[in-house]
Amino acid sequence: QLQLVESGGGLVQPGGSLRLSCATSGSTLEDYATGWFRQAPGKEREAVACISSSGGSTNYADSVKGRFTISRDNAKNTVYLQMNSLQPEDTAVYYCAADRILTHQAMCARRAGRYWGQGTQITVSS
């Protein structure tokens, strides 16, 4: 069973940057597609970005294309989300998820994953 722990959240001013990390344990990360998702108060969960098990293919929500980059280091069992040009509408709890069966495209399309982290808060405000 895969465990996931997010870190790197916090308060940032509009236009700023943050990098989230998702450290995994309990199983071999390279067997799993992974993704970052977010949920703002009163809103549905949104898929932000997903990445294939090898890291060779990615999907992004239109709202973050060109600003966010998902990556992974399977040797370190960690997935990253580099977030640039952050805006107030990016404020949410960010979760990482992993799935051994679903493709990364399916994870993003269905906003689904077998294993989830506890989430980390991102607040973009001046």
Account of the protein in words:
There is one protein chain. With 126 residues, this protein is mainly β. 6% of the residues lie in helices and 47% in strands. The protein is built from one helix and eleven strands. The protein has one helix spanning 104-110; strands at 3-7, 10-12, 18-25, 33-39, 46-51, 58-60, 68-73, 78-83, 92-99, 115-116, 120-124. Strands 2, 4, 5, 6, 9, 10 and 11 form a seven-stranded mixed β-sheet that branches. A four-stranded antiparallel β-sheet has the order 1-3-8-7, with no helix packed on it. A hairpin with a 4-residue loop joins strand 7 and strand 8 (78-83). The radius of gyration is 13 Å and the shape is globular. The model has no long low-confidence stretch (mean pLDDT 97).
Q: Point out poorly predicted stretches.
A: none
Distance between the termini: 40 Å
Helix content: under 10%
**Strand elements, count:** 11
Q: H/E series, N to C?
A: EEEEEEEEEHEE
Radius of gyration over C-alpha positions, nearest whole angstrom: 13 Å
Mean pLDDT: 97
% residues in beta strands:
over 45%
